[in-house]
Write a structure and sequence with these properties.
Number of domains: 1
Shape: globular
Helix content: 55-70%
Low-confidence stretches: 1-15
Structural class: mainly alpha
Number of helices: 10
Mean pLDDT: 90
Length: 259
Protein backbone atom coordinates (compact mmCIF):
# COMPACT_ATOMS: atom_id res chain seq x y z
CA UNK A 1 0.00 0.00 0.00
CA UNK A 2 1.37 3.43 -0.92
CA UNK A 3 1.40 6.01 1.85
CA UNK A 4 1.16 9.67 0.89
CA UNK A 5 2.96 12.16 3.13
CA UNK A 6 2.41 15.87 2.71
CA UNK A 7 5.36 18.28 2.64
CA UNK A 8 4.18 19.77 5.93
CA UNK A 9 4.10 16.34 7.63
CA UNK A 10 7.49 15.39 6.22
CA UNK A 11 9.00 18.66 7.42
CA UNK A 12 7.51 18.11 10.86
CA UNK A 13 9.09 14.62 11.07
CA UNK A 14 12.50 16.06 10.16
CA UNK A 15 12.19 18.81 12.74
CA UNK A 16 11.20 16.42 15.48
CA UNK A 17 14.31 14.29 14.88
CA UNK A 18 16.58 17.33 15.09
CA UNK A 19 14.85 18.79 18.14
CA UNK A 20 14.86 15.46 19.97
CA UNK A 21 18.61 15.25 19.45
CA UNK A 22 19.13 18.76 20.82
CA UNK A 23 16.84 18.03 23.76
CA UNK A 24 18.75 14.82 24.45
CA UNK A 25 22.05 16.71 24.44
CA UNK A 26 20.65 19.17 26.98
CA UNK A 27 19.45 16.27 29.13
CA UNK A 28 22.98 14.85 29.23
CA UNK A 29 24.29 18.28 30.21
CA UNK A 30 21.60 18.64 32.88
CA UNK A 31 22.33 15.21 34.37
CA UNK A 32 26.02 16.07 34.56
CA UNK A 33 25.23 19.43 36.17
CA UNK A 34 22.94 17.86 38.78
CA UNK A 35 25.53 15.18 39.54
CA UNK A 36 27.98 17.98 40.33
CA UNK A 37 25.30 19.72 42.43
CA UNK A 38 24.75 16.56 44.46
CA UNK A 39 28.48 16.17 45.03
CA UNK A 40 28.86 19.74 46.28
CA UNK A 41 25.66 20.27 48.29
CA UNK A 42 24.60 16.78 49.37
CA UNK A 43 27.95 14.99 49.65
CA UNK A 44 29.84 18.15 50.68
CA UNK A 45 32.72 17.81 48.23
CA UNK A 46 34.77 21.00 48.07
CA UNK A 47 34.70 22.49 44.55
CA UNK A 48 34.97 26.27 44.37
CA UNK A 49 34.56 26.38 40.58
CA UNK A 50 31.04 24.99 40.87
CA UNK A 51 30.00 28.00 42.97
CA UNK A 52 31.43 30.46 40.44
CA UNK A 53 30.57 32.11 37.14
CA UNK A 54 31.45 29.15 34.93
CA UNK A 55 28.98 26.81 36.62
CA UNK A 56 26.32 29.57 36.61
CA UNK A 57 26.68 29.98 32.84
CA UNK A 58 26.48 26.20 32.45
CA UNK A 59 23.27 26.06 34.49
CA UNK A 60 21.71 28.97 32.61
CA UNK A 61 22.55 27.42 29.22
CA UNK A 62 20.58 24.31 30.22
CA UNK A 63 17.46 26.03 31.55
CA UNK A 64 17.34 28.66 28.79
CA UNK A 65 17.55 25.96 26.11
CA UNK A 66 14.90 23.74 27.71
CA UNK A 67 12.42 26.58 28.17
CA UNK A 68 13.02 27.98 24.68
CA UNK A 69 12.67 24.50 23.15
CA UNK A 70 9.45 23.91 25.08
CA UNK A 71 7.94 27.05 23.58
CA UNK A 72 9.32 26.12 20.15
CA UNK A 73 7.67 22.69 20.25
CA UNK A 74 4.39 23.73 21.90
CA UNK A 75 2.44 24.08 18.65
CA UNK A 76 3.90 20.89 17.15
CA UNK A 77 2.14 18.47 19.48
CA UNK A 78 -1.45 17.42 20.06
CA UNK A 79 -3.59 17.77 23.18
CA UNK A 80 -1.93 20.89 24.67
CA UNK A 81 -4.23 20.84 27.70
CA UNK A 82 -3.34 17.25 28.57
CA UNK A 83 0.37 17.81 27.98
CA UNK A 84 0.38 20.97 30.07
CA UNK A 85 -1.45 19.30 32.95
CA UNK A 86 0.91 16.31 32.81
CA UNK A 87 4.05 18.44 33.03
CA UNK A 88 2.52 20.67 35.71
CA UNK A 89 1.54 17.56 37.68
CA UNK A 90 5.09 16.22 37.47
CA UNK A 91 6.34 19.53 38.82
CA UNK A 92 3.89 19.28 41.72
CA UNK A 93 5.09 15.74 42.41
CA UNK A 94 8.72 16.92 42.57
CA UNK A 95 7.70 19.64 45.03
CA UNK A 96 5.79 17.16 47.20
CA UNK A 97 8.64 14.65 47.32
CA UNK A 98 11.25 17.24 48.22
CA UNK A 99 9.03 18.81 50.89
CA UNK A 100 8.46 15.40 52.48
CA UNK A 101 11.94 13.90 52.26
CA UNK A 102 14.35 16.79 51.69
CA UNK A 103 12.69 19.93 53.12
CA UNK A 104 16.05 21.70 53.46
CA UNK A 105 16.52 21.24 49.68
CA UNK A 106 12.87 21.74 48.72
CA UNK A 107 11.80 22.67 45.20
CA UNK A 108 8.89 25.10 44.90
CA UNK A 109 7.88 26.35 41.45
CA UNK A 110 10.68 24.49 39.69
CA UNK A 111 11.27 24.26 35.96
CA UNK A 112 8.58 21.61 35.35
CA UNK A 113 5.97 23.75 37.10
CA UNK A 114 7.04 26.68 34.92
CA UNK A 115 6.94 24.73 31.66
CA UNK A 116 3.58 23.11 32.51
CA UNK A 117 2.12 26.50 33.47
CA UNK A 118 3.45 28.07 30.27
CA UNK A 119 1.92 25.28 28.16
CA UNK A 120 -1.45 25.88 29.78
CA UNK A 121 -1.19 29.66 29.57
CA UNK A 122 -0.39 29.45 25.87
CA UNK A 123 -3.81 27.91 25.13
CA UNK A 124 -5.66 31.23 25.59
CA UNK A 125 -2.65 33.43 24.73
CA UNK A 126 -2.04 31.77 21.35
CA UNK A 127 -5.21 33.23 19.88
CA UNK A 128 -3.80 36.74 20.30
CA UNK A 129 -0.19 35.69 19.56
CA UNK A 130 -1.21 34.38 16.13
CA UNK A 131 -2.07 37.94 15.08
CA UNK A 132 1.45 39.23 15.89
CA UNK A 133 4.12 38.94 13.14
CA UNK A 134 6.66 36.30 14.15
CA UNK A 135 9.69 38.61 14.01
CA UNK A 136 8.00 41.33 16.06
CA UNK A 137 6.71 38.79 18.57
CA UNK A 138 10.17 37.26 19.00
CA UNK A 139 11.80 40.67 19.52
CA UNK A 140 9.12 41.78 21.99
CA UNK A 141 9.26 38.51 23.96
CA UNK A 142 13.05 38.65 24.28
CA UNK A 143 12.91 42.33 25.27
CA UNK A 144 10.36 41.62 28.01
CA UNK A 145 12.39 38.64 29.23
CA UNK A 146 15.51 40.81 29.45
CA UNK A 147 13.63 43.65 31.17
CA UNK A 148 12.12 41.30 33.77
CA UNK A 149 15.14 39.00 34.23
CA UNK A 150 15.86 40.34 37.71
CA UNK A 151 12.27 40.61 38.89
CA UNK A 152 12.85 37.85 41.50
CA UNK A 153 15.47 40.13 43.08
CA UNK A 154 13.16 43.12 43.27
CA UNK A 155 14.42 45.07 40.25
CA UNK A 156 13.96 45.56 36.54
CA UNK A 157 17.01 44.80 34.42
CA UNK A 158 19.20 42.01 33.12
CA UNK A 159 21.77 40.29 35.37
CA UNK A 160 24.09 43.04 36.64
CA UNK A 161 22.17 45.86 34.94
CA UNK A 162 19.60 47.42 37.29
CA UNK A 163 17.11 49.78 35.66
CA UNK A 164 14.64 50.33 38.49
CA UNK A 165 13.52 48.93 41.85
CA UNK A 166 10.08 47.38 42.17
CA UNK A 167 7.67 48.08 45.06
CA UNK A 168 8.31 45.85 48.08
CA UNK A 169 4.55 45.35 48.42
CA UNK A 170 4.58 43.06 45.40
CA UNK A 171 6.65 40.49 47.29
CA UNK A 172 4.25 38.84 49.73
CA UNK A 173 3.78 35.06 49.70
CA UNK A 174 3.53 31.83 47.71
CA UNK A 175 1.10 33.17 45.11
CA UNK A 176 3.28 36.18 44.35
CA UNK A 177 6.33 33.87 44.30
CA UNK A 178 4.64 31.77 41.61
CA UNK A 179 4.16 34.92 39.55
CA UNK A 180 7.74 36.15 40.11
CA UNK A 181 7.66 38.12 43.35
CA UNK A 182 8.93 35.88 46.18
CA UNK A 183 8.05 37.06 49.65
CA UNK A 184 10.39 37.24 52.66
CA UNK A 185 11.68 33.81 53.68
CA UNK A 186 10.82 32.12 50.39
CA UNK A 187 13.34 29.43 49.44
CA UNK A 188 13.59 26.92 46.61
CA UNK A 189 16.63 25.16 45.21
CA UNK A 190 15.07 25.27 41.73
CA UNK A 191 12.94 28.37 41.15
CA UNK A 192 11.41 29.40 37.83
CA UNK A 193 8.50 31.82 38.17
CA UNK A 194 6.13 32.87 35.40
CA UNK A 195 7.92 36.21 35.22
CA UNK A 196 10.33 36.46 33.50
CA UNK A 197 10.48 32.89 32.16
CA UNK A 198 7.14 32.75 30.37
CA UNK A 199 8.48 35.33 27.93
CA UNK A 200 11.40 33.03 27.05
CA UNK A 201 8.86 30.25 26.41
CA UNK A 202 6.88 32.71 24.26
CA UNK A 203 10.07 33.61 22.38
CA UNK A 204 10.41 29.93 21.47
CA UNK A 205 6.86 29.95 20.13
CA UNK A 206 7.58 32.94 17.86
CA UNK A 207 10.97 31.52 16.82
CA UNK A 208 9.21 28.36 15.61
CA UNK A 209 6.86 30.46 13.50
CA UNK A 210 9.72 32.54 12.14
CA UNK A 211 11.67 29.46 11.03
CA UNK A 212 8.71 27.52 9.60
CA UNK A 213 9.70 27.83 5.95
CA UNK A 214 13.50 27.45 6.33
CA UNK A 215 13.03 24.36 8.49
CA UNK A 216 10.90 22.70 5.82
CA UNK A 217 14.01 22.50 3.64
CA UNK A 218 16.33 21.04 6.29
CA UNK A 219 18.19 17.80 5.57
CA UNK A 220 16.20 14.97 7.22
CA UNK A 221 19.41 13.72 8.85
CA UNK A 222 20.52 17.09 10.25
CA UNK A 223 21.48 16.82 13.94
CA UNK A 224 20.33 13.20 13.96
CA UNK A 225 21.99 11.16 16.71
CA UNK A 226 19.94 8.08 17.68
CA UNK A 227 21.05 7.81 21.35
CA UNK A 228 20.46 11.51 22.03
CA UNK A 229 17.21 11.52 20.03
CA UNK A 230 15.94 8.58 22.11
CA UNK A 231 16.68 10.54 25.29
CA UNK A 232 14.95 13.57 23.83
CA UNK A 233 11.80 11.64 22.94
CA UNK A 234 11.52 10.47 26.57
CA UNK A 235 12.65 13.73 28.13
CA UNK A 236 9.96 13.94 30.83
CA UNK A 237 10.43 10.40 32.23
CA UNK A 238 14.21 10.86 32.06
CA UNK A 239 13.92 14.14 33.94
CA UNK A 240 11.73 12.60 36.63
CA UNK A 241 14.03 9.61 37.11
CA UNK A 242 17.49 11.11 36.78
CA UNK A 243 17.95 12.63 40.24
CA UNK A 244 17.11 9.46 42.25
CA UNK A 245 19.35 7.44 39.93
CA UNK A 246 22.23 9.94 40.13
CA UNK A 247 21.90 10.23 43.90
CA UNK A 248 21.84 6.44 44.28
CA UNK A 249 24.97 6.05 42.19
CA UNK A 250 26.79 8.77 44.10
CA UNK A 251 25.68 7.32 47.44
CA UNK A 252 27.05 3.92 46.40
CA UNK A 253 30.30 5.52 45.30
CA UNK A 254 30.50 7.50 48.52
CA UNK A 255 30.00 4.38 50.62
CA UNK A 256 32.61 2.48 48.63
CA UNK A 257 35.20 5.25 48.90
CA UNK A 258 34.39 6.19 52.48
CA UNK A 259 33.44 9.83 51.84
Amino acid sequence: MRVCVTQREAGRARRIAALDTLRGLMLVSMIAYHACWDLVYLFHRDWDWYRGTGAYIWQQSICWTFILLSGFCWQMGRHPLRRGLTVFGCGAAVSAVTLLFMPEERILFGVLTLIGSSMLLMIPVEKAARRIPAGAGLALSLALFALLRNVNRGTLGFEGLVLAELPAGLYRGLLTAYLGFPGPGFFSTDYFSLLPWFFLFLAGYFLRRLLERPMAAWDPGALRCPPLAALGRWSLPVYMAHQPVVYGLLWTLSAALGW
